[in-house]
Amino acid sequence: MSSLIPDTLLTGFTLTGRYKNFPQAAAARPAAELSELNWQLLNDDLPYPMAVLSEAALRHNLAWMQRYANDRGVQLAPHGKTSLSPELFALQLQAGAWGLTFATVYQAAVGVAAGARRVIIANQVLADADLDGLQALLGQHPDLRVWFLVDSTAQLALIEDWAARRAGSRPFEVLLEVGIPGKRTGCRSLEQALTLARALAASQAVLLGGIECYEGGAAICDSTHDSREVTDLVRRVLAIARACDDEGLLSGDEILLTAGGSAVFDLVLPLLQAQGLSRPVCGVLRSGCYITHDHGNYQRFLKLLEQREGLADSLQAALTVWALVQSVPEPGLALLSCGRRDLSYDLEMPVPLQMARRGVRSLLQAQAVPADWRIDALNDHHAYLRFDPAGPVPAVGDRVGLGISHPCTTFDKWRWMPVLDEQGRVVSAISTHF
User: Fold this and answer.
1) Buried residues in 286-299 as b, exposed as e (16+ CB within 10 A)
2) CATH code of residue 163
3) What is the rounded distance in angstroms from the CA atom of residue 59 to the CA atom of residue 24?
4) Is there a single domain that holds both residue 151 and residue 270?
5) pTM for this model (two decimals)
6) Collapsing DSSP states into helix, strand and coil, what is residue 31?
7) What 3-state class would DSSP assign to 314?
8) Domain range for 380
9) Are residues 339 and 391 in the same domain?
10) CB of 408 within 8 A of CB of 81?
């Protein structure tokens, strides 16, 4: 089987000792040539800690998520802030993604450079420098379309003020955001949304292309609760979309309706599949963490989604962090060579998954750790591994593989990650641009 990441995607990506945990003794190396070195993770060719990606799991996740969207008649615009990796963006687009989603104009520029020509900035844009940057990006790429979110007439006033000071600027395509009371951004009521939609439709600075929401704030990983709360949000968004459509406030040949975090994306499908409007609906799902999935938060949410949809063999965790046992200072405690600088801890602690004793060279020979092993604290560069002294005991020099929860906050701690085959051989790499 050919490499998941072709060499053409790695042009200009050269690794040196200035990249975190690229071997200091190694010469600078183009990423496209890494596979020639026959480096093995467990052969200690790379320093620890090391965040790594499974090629097989990445390949599976790319195909599964695109098939999921295709089978349900919706488009996929993965949220790129998960990885901020041009190589992964290109793979998502090649797999069939309609476009990409970002949180900032800077991130959008990274995605455009990777080949995206449809971009949703799922956030408010209002600063002069960002509006200037977005206008420049659109000017550099005539085939590019970008939509960003507006949720208040105050934001619109700032955009219009900017446009008045920028002679010849073109109108921005925007989406009206609908929010949840007490949660993040977005209009809270039908009346507020319609007032804003009328102002957007009358403005010379913007074109209102559709409606957006983010349902993640309503979900607590309880199917009964999540189904009820997300369904309520979907009904509110649909009511606003229909009211805007009835008043002729939406521009373009189709109406863009978009939602979808990575937790309960199945529950927003009735919005994205909406019918009965005056023009065709382009329903866009924006899940991003599917590319690597995880061993915590999203894994639990996905199990509920699988139950609701009757699915099996869905997403697989592709991201792990391997660390060295560097000290066993007392019975029941080992210190690993990783910490807050290296992996996610914003939602929960990393999960010990596998151990490879000294002398083990292949990932296929790594063993599952005892169920009682746990990480209960992190420092900047230490993880506190607790274990039962009466059971298997980690030794100095052993390697431990950790699963993480919420991949976004592991990606941003690395400028590169090796991609491994099933044995742990480095077959490629990705870069990140946080």
Assistant:
1) bbbbbbbbbbbbbb
2) 3.20.20.10
3) 30
4) yes
5) 0.96
6) helix
7) coil
8) 7-55+315-431
9) yes
10) yes
| Tokens found for residue 29 | 């190396």
The number of beta carbons lying within 10 Å of the beta carbon of residue 242 is 15
- Listed in sequence order, the residues at least 6 apart from 207 whose beta carbon sits closer than 8 Å to its beta carbon are 171, 172, 173, 174, 251, 252
Instruction: Report the relative pairing of strands 333-336 and 75-76 from DSSP bridges.
Output: unpaired
Looking at the structure, tell me whether residues 258 and 355 fall in a common domain: no
CA pair distance 47, 25, nearest whole angstrom: 11
CB 120 within 8 A of CB 147: yes
Percent of the chain topping pLDDT 90? 98
417: β partners: 430
| Residue from 66, 113, 114 nearest 87 by CA | 114
Written as one string, the DSSP assignment of 230-261 is: HHHHHHHHHHHHHHHHHTT---SSSEEEEE--
What are the tens digits of pLDDT across the range 345-369?
999 999 999 999 999 999 999 999 9
C-alpha 301: how far from chain center:
15
Nearest-angstrom CA–CA distance, 133 and 111: 14
Give yes or no: residues 108 and 211 share one domain.
yes
Question: For residue 23, which amino acid is it?
Answer: P
Contacts of 253 (CB under 8 A, 6+ apart): 279, 280
Residue 384 has what pLDDT?
Answer: 98
Specify burial of residue 58 (Cβ count, 10 A radius: 0-12, 13-18, 19+): buried
Gyration radius (Cα) of the chain, Å:
23
Q: Is the link from the previous residue into 418 a cis peptide, with omega within 30 of 0?
A: no
ω before 47 within 30° of 0 (cis)? no
Are residues 85 and 149 both part of a single domain? yes
The maximal CA–CA distance of the chain, rounded, in angstroms, is 75
Q: Which tens digit of pLDDT belongs to each residue from 89-127? A: 999 999 999 999 999 999 999 999 999 999 999 999 999
Tally Cβ neighbours within 10 Å of residue 139: 11
Report whether 418 contacts 22 (CB < 8 A): no
Taken in order 142, 145, 149, 153, the sign of the CA dihedral is: positive
Distances (CA, A) of 130 to 103, 141, 186: 12, 17, 20
Q: What is the DSSP letter of 169?
A: P
Residue 296 placed within a domain = no
Nearest to 349 by CA among 379, 391, 315: 379
